[in-house]
Structure formats: structure tokens, C-alpha cells
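call fold(seq) -> C-alpha cells
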Amino acid sequence: MPNYLQQPSLTQSRDLKSLVENRTTYSHNQFELNVFETHLKAHEVELQFQDFVFTSMFRGKKVMHLEGKGAFDYLPGESVIIAPGEKMVIDFPEACEENPTQCLAIEIGDDLISKTADLLNEKFNKPQACGDWSLDMKIHHLLNGEDLANALNRLVHLSVNEQAKLKDALLDLAMQEMIIRLMQTQARSLLIRDYKRSSVSNPMSAAVDYLSQHLTESIAMKDIAAKACMSRAKFFAKFKEMYGETPARFLQRLRLEKARQLLLNTEASISEVAMSCGFENLSHFTTAFKKETGQTPGQYRKVDWAS
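ret:
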């Protein structure tokens, strides 16, 4: 499964102010962290913030409607970013007392985002043709990577549990890390989406283009690095630094994405899907797929075809 967040305790029923989007707020001088819970099926619930908002699901399912972006399911292991003033319209098709939704929403001022981006651009420039580090509002629906999930878990833990005098300083550092990890996650998503178009000018895209064409093969790191015109060690370090995960983890992500498409759009057996996506055996494929999606390949195919 995509990296899930550590779920905070649910609010006791006697303490709920509302069964729909009950809100618990933790304020800080540079941001506000909110935990929303819904314990009742509901539709077309509107929510809006003045500043930029980063959201991530703890549990349950929402259907999000954002202007000009269409409706989409929003599930644990995923995050969504919301532009300042953008209105969210949210459905809760499965929420109930036994199966509530719980979502994190962090409202962040533009000054903190700009300051973090400036620091990152000063210390670590993106490769040529990739532009400067910034938050891209066009990449709004994301799968959490391990580093982003870990940064969010630290931020929530500090906000909810930390009592020390150093709390504000620790929260400032944790928020800065979260923003950086979010930028890395967006960069990784952009790389997956646009590698064909930028493979000539961007060495990382050239490496991903090579990976995509050899998914069924055993790929040596030195061969991938050669496509980026780097040594193995330099390529590994640059890739992890820029995208927040190792090339090997990224390769597995590409293979699992191809597997999802084959399960949804073909009648190939699960064994055939595993082999055509470069997995050594069915057991390895099933284990990796369930870790990524929370379902076995058979469960994923059945649920999605049924829907």
C-alpha cells in the first residue's frame, strides 16, 4: 500500500461537535493543523480555506470534487493539495459510526512555503531543464512516499503530543521537512508523467525512459546510471536526493503501475501479469502488490471490475 499515516485516536462520541467533518485544531504560529472526522454518510459537503492546504487521509474514503479537476476517490496512503481559496465539495459515501473517515488538513502560509523553497533552491538546485523547486498546484493528487509519510507522522505527533519548551522550534523544522518531501513527491510524479517528453534534456528522465522499456528484465544499476551519464554512486545519491526514494523502489513502483493497468484492462492471468511486469515469481508480485495497494492482485481486479 502507499505509505499510510499513523492514525490518531478517534474522538469519543460524547465529545463530537458534529458527525460530519468534526474538526480538531492544533494551532502554531506558522501553520494550523486540523484533524477532520466524519461518522455519517453525507454528500456535497463544502469546505474552504484562505491559505494553501495540504491534506492527507488517515482512514475511510472520500470522493473529492475540485473545480476543473473532476471527481476522484480519496483514500488512505494518498494526499491532496488545495490552492488558497479553492472550494472543496466532498462526498462521504461509506462513512458511518463503525467506518468513519479521518483526514489531516494543514493550512500553511505562503511565506513559509516560499522561504522553504528558497532554501532548497539555494542549497540544492534541480537538474537543468527541471526548473526551480516549488509547489506545483497542477499536481494535486499524490501517493505518499515513505519519506513524506514519515515527515507527516512526526508533524502530527509533535502537534498532538509534544509539551516541551522546544515544541515550536521542533514544529518549524518538521514543517520545513514536510514541505521539502512534498516537493520531492511532486517531482517524482512529474517524472513518471513526463519522462518521454523530457528524456533528451533531462538525464533523470532518460534513465526512467530506459527503465520503462526494460521493465521485464533484470536491470543493473550501472546501466541505469549510464543513461543519465553518471557514475552508479552519483546517480543513486542524486536520485534519492531529488525524488525521495531509491531507483530500485522507483523501478518497483513503475512495475506495479503497469501491473495495475494490466489487471484492469486485460484478461491476462495474475501469473502472466507478474511475469510481464518483471517480477521473479508470483509470490514476490503478490507481496509487493498488496504492500503498495492494500489488496492482493485478485482482490484489486475484482473490486475495480465490479465498480
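The first strand starts at residue 22 and ends at 27.
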